[in-house]
Amino acid sequence: MLDAHFWWTWRTETMTPTITPASGPSTEDCKERSARLFGELDQLLAGDPYWKICVTLYRLLTRKRGYYGCRENPLSNALGVQEDGIVPWKYQVARVGEKCRRLRGPLETFAIRDTLLDIAGHAVVGIAVLDHEDKQ
């Protein structure tokens, strides 16, 4: 059986659905290839209970990247809090705390799932800014 991590790395090395080089494929081509890639990976990892959640989280983070105008640098918004004297990873922890407080209130089932995805997303961004700081 093909190693899914190797396959994912090999297939995604030159395509990202949110960043399109000037000389490369169009955004629509990237979206189509991304959808096809996720479909193929879905078949490979159909029995993994975490796969669909991870894909949903990835799509959520890339969609939010677009909302915040971070197409060139996915971390620009998260790192931007430094301008206000806030440590980026600590800001993400504060956002996780905010989402946890939301869970203590009355929520419908779908809101619980969305809030948990938000928490996971802020955790991922926190790890990404930590990794970025380690590289500096």
Give the SSE layout:
Elements (H helix, E strand, L loop, with lengths): L3 H9 L14 H18 L6 H17 L8 H5 L7 H16 L5 H27 L1
Keyphrases for this structure?
136 residues, mainly alpha, 6 helices, 68% helix, 0% strand
Structure described in brief:
This protein has 136 residues and is mainly α. It has a domain of 64 residues.
**Biggest pleated sheet:** none
Span of the ends, CA to CA: 38 Å
The helicity comes to 55-70%
Integer-rounded radius of gyration: 17 Å
Beta-strand portion reads under 5%
Average predicted confidence as pLDDT: 80
Compute the number of helices.
Answer: 6
The backbone outline, from C-alpha atoms, is globular
- Would you count the extended β strands for me? 0
Low-confidence stretches: 13-22
Which structural class fits the helix and strand makeup? mainly alpha
N-to-C order of helices and strands: HHHHHH
Summarize the structure in words.
The chain contains 6 helices and no strands. By secondary structure, it is an all-alpha fold. The chain has a domain at 73-136.
